[in-house]
Recover the amino acids of this structure.
């Protein structure tokens, strides 16, 4: 009987420490954001000079840093005489959409810009990143936030 009590106590002790270590890990994995949101965005002030003419596909770099998704959209084609570029964010389930829009573009020419955005994610998971330039889908990619 004492043998079973010792086995029970050792097993309970081991399970207690396993449970404690799991709890500590889950505390480290909590997002600082209450909801998924666009944290910041910026864009180049003028046309990029290194543009390859007739590029029709988006060049995008995505980096996941904890609960932040950093996105750089190179060669975003917009009006060459715009005042600024606005980025709007929409969350639709596990799809994160960025809408890049020109403000006061009044010329009949296009040129490339570089646009960066940072999205703060509330929960770990797999997300579909979609980028729209002037309401045209230019990029899609699945990204994991561990």
């Amino acid at each position: 009987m004492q043998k079973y009590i010792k086995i029970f106590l050792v097993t309970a002790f081991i399970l207690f420490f396993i449970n404690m270590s799991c709890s500590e890990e889950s505390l480290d994995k909590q997002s600082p954001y209450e909801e998924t949101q666009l944290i910041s965005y910026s864009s180049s002030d003028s046309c990029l000079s290194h543009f390859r003419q007739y590029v029709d596909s988006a060049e995008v770099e995505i980096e996941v840093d904890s609960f932040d998704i950093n996105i750089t959209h190179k060669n975003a084609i917009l009006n060459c005489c715009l005042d600024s570029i606005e980025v709007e964010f929409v969350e639709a389930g596990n799809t994160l959409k960025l809408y890049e829009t020109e403000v006061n573009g009044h010329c009949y020419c296009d040129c490339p810009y570089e646009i960066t955005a940072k999205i703060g994610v509330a929960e770990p998971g797999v997300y579909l990143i979609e980028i729209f330039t002037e309401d045209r889908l230019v990029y899609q990619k699945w990204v994991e936030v561990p």
The first strand starts at residue 37 and ends at 43. Residues 23-27 have pLDDT under 50 and may be disordered. Strands lie at 37-43, 59-65, 68-79, 84-92, 95-103, 110-120, 125-133, 136-145. DSSP finds one helix and eight strands in the chain.
